[in-house]
Design goal:
Layout (H helix, E strand, L loop, with lengths): L3 E7 L11 H14 L4 E8 L10 H13 L2 E4 L2 H4 L3 H13 L3 E4 L4 E2 L2 H35 L14 E4 L2 E7 L1 H15 L4 H10 L11 H11 L1
Parallel strand pairs: 1-2, 1-3, 3-4
Antiparallel strand pairs: 4-5, 6-7
Length: 228
């Protein structure tokens, strides 16, 4: 019977009810191990850590080393407790498999032992990535729609280039005539076949500043993307 290593990660949120404590995660992971008759060899927790920065999860690294040493099973409460980055999660699973170890996710009821479990994990990650991309696309479309209709989606000092807060309504934005003229010039440069970097240099050479600063090609690229 393979030995289990339990790992829990807790990252506090404004609404504490959204995330189970490390203690609750460990408790549920241990219950999972009892149900599957996996003896627990050790447990590790990362407190106040974001899975968006896997390099900072030092206790996860210790848990991985321990499970690889015994060729056992790393048991975590859910996939997002192990990692919120798809590439990192896939690398984690691949690294465990390379060293004859596995990982089990309690919430998703996935264990990567055998080809079926690995396929289930891959399908889950593909679906999660699709969902993230769809949400990102919907959010971007919604922001463009609201901005096009004059609603401010950012702080007053962070209006998109070409716009400024409406003095009569702080929740709305209106076109800035001077910046709109610069945007039109950027469009003309683009129609002439110029790329973002040459356009930035041309604007600097003409003495046109980007809100008090020299132009950067990323700013030009952002303006062109919104103008499409």
């Amino acid at each position: 019977m393979p030995r289990a290593i339990v790992h829990a990660r807790f990252s506090p949120r404004p609404n504490a009810a959204e995330c189970d404590s490390a203690e609750k995660q460990v408790e549920r992971c241990r219950a999972y191990c009892r149900a599957h008759e996996y003896p627990v060899a050790a447990q590790f927790t990362d407190e106040d850590k974001s899975a968006g920065k896997p390099e900072e999860l030092e206790h996860r690294a210790e848990a991985v080393a321990a499970v690889c040493a015994t060729k056992g099973i790393l048991v975590v409460y859910s996939i997002d407790r192990a990692s919120r980055d798809m590439r990192d999660a896939l690398e984690l699973v691949d690294g465990l498999h390379a060293r004859k170890a596995d990982i089990a996710f309690v919430v998703e009821q996935i264990i990567t032992r055998g080809p079926v479990g690995r396929a289930m994990f891959q399908n889950f990650m593909d679906y999660a990535e699709l969902q993230r991309n769809l949400i990102r696309q919907r959010t971007s479309s919604a922001m463009r729609y609201y901005q096009a209709n004059g609603w401010r989606m950012t702080r007053p000092d962070c209006c998109p280039y070409g716009w400024r807060p409406d003095p009569a309504d702080s929740e709305r934005i209106i076109e800035d005539a001077d910046e709109q003229a610069v945007i039109e010039r950027i469009r003309e440069y683009r129609q002439q076949g110029m790329g973002p970097r040459p356009i930035a240099r041309a604007l600097d050479a003409a003495g046109i500043l980007c809100r008090g600063h020299r132009w950067h090609d990323s700013a030009v690229r952002s303006i062109l993307r919104r103008a499409d």
